[in-house]
Amino acid sequence: MRLLLIITLLMTLLFPAVPVMAGDASAGLSYDVTVQVDGDQVVFPDQKPFINTGTGRTYVPLRFVTEKLGATVNWNQQEKVAIVEKSGKTVKAPVGSNEPTVNGQAVYLDAPVRLINARTVVPLRFMSETLGTEVKWNSSTKTVYIKVNQAAGETDISPGSVIEITADVLNVRSGPGTSTPEIGEVIKGDKLTVFESSQGWYKVELSDGSMGWVSGRFVKVDDVQDSPGVMQGVVDATNVNVRSGPGTNHDIIGKVDRGERLGILEQAGNWFKVELVQGGIGWIADQLINIEEAEATTPLQEEQIREELKNNQDSDKNYPPPSEEKEEEQTDWQNYDSNVAGLEVGEDNGVTVATVNTTGALEHHIFTLTNPDRLVVDLKGVKPGDLAEEINVNSELVKRIRTGKFSENPNIVRLVFDVKEPVMFAATKSKKNDGEELTLKLYVPNLGTHLKGKTIAIDPGHGGSDPGAIGSSGLKEKDVNINVGLLTANLLRQNGAEVILTRSTDAYVGLYQRTKIAGRGGADVFVSIHMNAHPKRGYSGTSTYYRRDNISGLGVSQADNRLLAQQVHSQLMQSLNRRDVGIKQANFVVLRTAAMPAVLVEASFISNLEEERLLAKDSYRAKIAEAIAKGLAYYFAQKES
Q1: Rounded to two decimals, what is the model's pTM?
Q2: Could you say which of 122, 410, 509, 588 has the lowest number of CB atoms within 10 Å?
Q3: Among this protein's residues, is 164 annotated catalytic?
């Protein structure tokens, strides 16, 4: 009886879905749909697949999942939840919900799970690709093509080849297999260079220079990789007809939707001959497709950037880290014989200034703690001397300072500043008489009035099961991203902005869900925070991305995207003083799906040894956060001028 209750699988292929209306559940449904799996047509003895004629969405039965895709299905009658399991993945799909879960992580869908004629139905493309199969749709023949088994030699692709992604959305993993963590996504039409292969998986270089693995079942060799004259265009309307020839008198052979990227082969009158992502050639009216803007970064420009970085790997020595970032690992603390000679605290225009004098040499390490908010200064190679254990300050930002000997061998004196709110800080050290002087400034940047009333989405990249890039010391990108994101959020709130965080803990959030969170919160802008990585450790520097295509249907001006990127990048360069990799364009998911001006920041390379050491320091992360906040303030100031 359980399986009889879970017969139907609602599968979304190309167009937006709407709930089946109450009353006659079969109204507006067309049952002339054919489904093929690995080339064989599927016979449906019970519930047949159908199309919702109002939306064009195709549905197929759930028993099909168990019998043809090799999954097992159970039904929780009390909670009305279908539970699908295959290859270590568990999908729970509650009836009436738009958010099924995959291994406990919620995934937002535009089509809710429904009951039709007492059958449970859920979105197909999500289910099929979650279970590791490929789905294609031919609108002219109303046929669903699903590939489960890979033919021998089907993806025998040698290193150096360029492949094209054939799945709508394909997970990129840290290793060759579905058991390895997901580290990103690529989309249909993306072209990637293959570096090595393993058991049907291919290691590829992504557009941001990082490396990952994709399944060979969802790729094809790029047949036009040696044809630099092929133009690219982006569809600028919904439900666009693709015809067999240049004119409306020719047959419709398929459809494409807004945002799809197509190769343009030639033009005849007011029609473009295009190469479809799923294969095949057709014609589209020229007013329905935008030629890719000339300023967009081309593969050749990307290669020139990489070549420049390769030829200048050692030039980072021209950008020394600030004085407070001086490396400490080689210091022999036993040779230090210094005492704290005095600690003075004052306030200057809202800035708390603390000055520490010592009788000899010192080194310092500064970091922040939360719950409650504190700023901690460790003075290494120093003894407390006559330093008071507690100093009442009660300045605008600091309540008190607690002091004490933190350790011996080496000697470390710890100063704990109990602050009233999260603060930024700057430290400078200088020689004075027979000792040294450390000046510490604690402050909250005043970014003017332009952030007041603005709603800003801050998106710390990766999280949870997705660690992002990992440095040689084990530093995880996800941890740096969330720390910078929280610091940025604090600064923005302190300056009057409302902040939406796509994640505030070490949690996994899907790429498509991130911009949906921003959209539901009414965000004015969207900033995604990342740290870069590359197999070559010499790669370093800062880059900022905005969307490649001018997709007018999202209601976002490309000029606003560009302005936001320019303002944020300018502040990052001034603050971090790292190599300028540049303002670039890319169609990352969080950029192309944002319904508001959006940028993605790659602040520094976690794969670069020097920049990884910087990223491990609170002071450097604070600089990134302050730069992003300043860039946002300048963006809104310019928009209001």
Answers
A1: 0.48
A2: 410
A3: no
